[in-house]
Fold:
Amino acid sequence: MRKVYLDNAATTPLIPEVCEAMMPFLGEAFGNPSSLHDWGDVAREAVEAAREQVAQLIGASAEEIIFTGSGTESNNFAVKGLALAQQNKGKHVVVSAIEHFSVLNSARTLEKWGFELSLVPVDRYGVVDPDYVRRSIRKDTILVSIMQANGEIGTMESISEIARITKESNVVFHTDAVATAGTIPVNVSELGVDALSLAGNQFYGPKGVGALWVRKGVRIMSLLDGGIQEGGRRAGTENMPAIVGLGKAAELAATNMVARMEHLTHLRDRLLTELPAKIAHVVVTGHPQDRLPGNASFCIEFIEGESMLMLLNSQGVAVSSGSACTSRALKASHVLIAIGIPHELAHGSLLFSFGIENTVEDVDYVLEVLPPIVDRLRQMSPLYAKFTKAREGGK
Amino acid sequence: MPVYSEKVMDHFMHPRNVGEIENPDGVGEVGNPVCGDMMTFYIKVKDNRLEDVKFKTFGCGAAIAVSSMVSEMAKDKTLEEALKITPRSVADELEGLPKNKFHCSNLGAQALTKAIEDYLSKKGKHRKKGKKEGGEQ
Structure:
C-alpha cells in the first residue's frame, strides 16, 4: 500500500544529511564540551559551529542563541524567564488566544505566580489585530508573546507591526517561531522582536532539541540551575547529537529555503483548491493567502475527525485533527474555537501538513481516497441525514 | 492510531446494521453534535422480539464500533433481554474501550433503550387510545 506522511506539523522526518552529521556524536565523539581536553575540544567546537549555523538561519549573533530541549522548553523559558526577569517593572503579560499550549500554559502558570494575563483574540482567519495588542498594553505590561504562524491553521501574524508597538511602549516581545523558523525566511532584526523560539523537528532536524534566541541586553531568568552551560542560562550537559543535528538542519534550511517553499506552496494550493471542489460542505480554516507554505487545514461537515483519521490511516495516509475525540483531554482545539468554528464543525477538523518529501502524486492520492471516506461516514451520520432531509423538505 | 482493541477496529472498519428503518416501531436518539457523539437507533419489533435494529452514528471510532456492537447484540433478542444490555456489557463484548472514551462514546445501550421505550410508549398509547396516561417522552 502507498504510504503518505502528511503530518509534518507534528514532526518532520530526519533527513539523511542531518542524520549523518549527528552520527559521530553518538559514537567516538562522545566528549563533554565543558571538559578541558581533546575530547572536550571536539565537542565544544561542534556546539559552537551549530550555534553559528542556527544564528545564521535567523540573522542573529551566535552568542544570543541558547540551546534547549524542545520548542516547548524554549517557549516556557521565554515566557516565564522573561517575565520573571522584568517583574520589578510590572506583572502584566499579553499573549494571543491561539498560542501553542507551551506559551498559553506558561502564561497561566505566571498567573498562579501573581502575574496578570490578557488574552488577545483573533479574527475568523486567526489573525491578531496589532491595534488590539496596542490597546492591551498597560503601564505595568512587561511581556507580549505572539506566535509568528499557527501550526494548526497556518495563519501568519504581523509580527514586525506588533514589534513596533511593543518597542514604543518599551515592552519585551517574544515570538514563537517554531512553525516558521527553518521553513520560511525569519530574520530577527527585520521582525524587531526581543526573543524567538524554534525547534529542530520542524525543519528536518532531530526531536528533543530547540533554541531560544534572546536579543543581547534583554534580561532573562534561567529556569534550570546548575553549571554554566549556555552562558549560565541553561544548565545541563549538552545533547550533542541533537545540537549538531539542529545546526546541520538549520544550514540546509537556509540553503534550500526558496526551493522548499515553492514546492510546499504548490502542494498546499493544489489541496486547498481541489479538496473543496471534490467534497461538498468543506470549510478551509486559517487565512486563505497569508499562511504557512505546507499547511492545508479544513473542517469537513457532518462527520468526526478521528474516524476520518483512522480510515485515512487504513489507506496509508497520515494526517492529524483538532477534533475533541483525537485529543487526550477530549477538548476541541482551542485554535478552532478561537477563530469561531462551532464545536460541532470543529469535530470534523483535518490538518494536512506537507514536507519536502511529499509529491504531487501524494496530493492526488489524498484526493482519490478521501472523498469515499467522507461519503461512507456521511452515510452513517445522523447529522447528514437530518441535513439532507431538511434540504429535501425545503424544496 | 488510538489504542483500540481488535474487536473495536473490526466493528469500526466493518460496522454492522448501519442505516435507517422505514416506518420504524421505535426510534431512540442520544448525545449531541456539540459533544461530538450522537447516535440514533431504529427498531422493528415482531412478537416482542427485535426483528431488525439499525443505527446512524456521528462520532469517533469507538462510538461507531459501540453502535455496531449494540445493534448486533440486540438483534433477535426479546425486548426484556435487549433492555439488559448495558454500557459495561457492550464494552466487554468489544474487549474493552479506552478509559477516557468509555462515557462519551458508549451511548449505544442508552440509544437502544430509548428506542424500545419509544416503541412501548407508542404501543401503550395505541392500546389506551383516548386515555391521558400515554407514555409521551
Remarks:
- The longest helix of chain B spans residues 108-127.
